[in-house]
Amino acid sequence: MKKLIVLFLLISSVSQAQFGKSTFSKDPIINLENFDKQRVYWGYFLGFSTFDFKTDYKVPGQDINVKGNSGFNVGLVGALRLHEYVELRFEPGLYYASRTLTYPGFTNDRDAIREVKATYIDFPLMLKFSSLRTGNVRPYLLGGVGATLNLSSNSKSKDDNSEQKFRVQPWTNNYTFGFGIDLYFEYFKFSPSIRGVFGFGDELIRDDDPNSPWTGNIESLKTRAVLINFTFH
Question: pTM here?
Answer without folding.
Answer: 0.85
